[in-house]
């Protein structure tokens, strides 16, 4: 199915899009159980301490213990990524709602009454293709040793993309307080983790290539 035909199906029945959004939110929310996350964080800390003590004592660390540490780290990474995705969706949906209200003339003025002022429509200026951002994320991570803080990766990307960014990339997004390309790069990183291109067990705030590709 082409992109145009997919959009047309939502235009004919917008409720389908609403249901799809709710399904996505519900699935992401299922990964963010804070109680389970707190328990896993405690377990991970204790296992990490145990491994450290064994290594200092010169005792061989059981493979099952290392495997459990990796499993817990991966699970916590999924928690963090899901929460980040929900945060991004909150910001994006806030902008969409504001846009919709503006187009319908429903934006509230300071006196509580409706105004005729229209919210600025979503820009259609050209933007860098996600595949380019994906390649640049990989290149930047390799330049930074295979893993680095998200901020450092984005900064490196900015240096490499200097003079190559398109007009739409340089639009400022008040909701996330960053340029469009920076926000899009973070979304692409999320998709890369889901696709297995980037490590899913890196600490929160760290972007990393799989060990065999670093």
What does this structure look like?
By secondary structure, the chain is mainly α. Helix content is 62%, strand content 5%. The chain contains seven helices and four strands. It has helices at residues 3-12, 14-30, 34-56, 63-103, 130-143, 150-160, 180-195; strands spanning 147-149, 172-173, 178-179, 206-208. The strands form two sheets. A two-stranded antiparallel ribbon has the order 1-4. A two-stranded antiparallel ribbon has the order 2-3. A hairpin with a 4-residue loop joins strand 2 (172-173) and strand 3. The longest helix is centred in the middle third of the chain and has 41 residues, at 63-103. Residues 110-119 have low confidence and may be disordered.
List the helices and strands and how they pair.
Elements: H1 3-12, H2 14-30, H3 34-56, H4 63-103, H5 130-143, E1 147-149, H6 150-160, E2 172-173, E3 178-179, H7 180-195, E4 206-208
Antiparallel strand pairs: 1-4, 2-3
Helix pairs in contact: 1-2, 3-4, 5-6, 5-7
Quick rundown:
The chain has 214 residues and is mostly helical. It has helices at residues 3-12, 14-30, 34-56, 63-103, 130-143, 150-160, 180-195, and strands at residues 147-149, 172-173, 178-179, 206-208.
Provide keyphrases for this structure.
214 residues, mainly alpha, two-stranded antiparallel ribbon, 7 helices
> Approximately how much helix is present in the residues?
55-70%
In N-to-C order, the SSE pattern is HHHHHEHEEHE
Main structural class = mainly alpha
Number of strands: 4
What is the overall pLDDT average? 83
